[in-house]
Amino acid sequence: MDNNQSKKCCCCEESDEQKYAKIEKVIEEYKGKEGCLIQILHYAQGIFGYLPLELQEFIAKKLDIPLSEVSGVVSFYSFFSTQPRGENTIRVCLGTACYVRGGKKIVDKLKEILDIDVGDTTKDRKFTLEVMRCIGACGLAPAISINDKVYKQVNPDKLNSILEEYY
Ligand code: FES
After folding, report:
1. Centre of ligand 1 from the C-alpha of residue 145, in Å
2. pLDDT averaged over consecutive 10-residue blocks of the chain (167 residues)?
3. Ligand 1: which atom is nearest the Cα of residue 103?
4. What is the pTM (predicted TM-score) of this model?
5. In this structure, which topology does domain 88-164 adopt according to CATH?
6. 141 lines ligand 1 (CB under 6 A)
7. Sequence ranges of the domains in the chain
8. Which residues lie across from 129 on neighbouring strands?
9. Cβ of 134 less than 6 Å from ligand 1
């Protein structure tokens, strides 16, 4: 294993070696079974939070399949991510109703508060910022969601206090 994989957090988190060992065990268990690649990728993403290239390479090697097959599946399904994700996912609705009622201003304000772009994750891995089309709250637009919670009639001035709930 290279140095990257042997990094260890100073707190009680598992080392990367331990994570890779867990994934290897699951690969042994699922190898050869139908649909095993997706299940393994799910498991691996659950452990690491995302699927970096070196992890995809590891899985491809252990399954004796080309990396392109693994990468193809990862890029096909939107629930797989190759970038680190935040503990919380903020989705700003930019569907028609929300757009018309200021959704874009919400996006701009969040970008400013979090100091990231859409699609990125904050340095402290607290938040990932995304946009989406209609979350079913058009009557009370503009709306955003954080994880499974929907916030309606949001205005840029409310954002700081909403985010505070997650610290
Ligand atoms: S357009 Fe935003 S909730 Fe429907």
Report:
1. 11
2. 44 82 95 92 92 96 96 91 90 97 97 95 94 94 96 96 96
3. 2
4. 0.69
5. Glutaredoxin (3.40.30)
6. yes
7. 13-76, 88-164
8. 90
9. yes
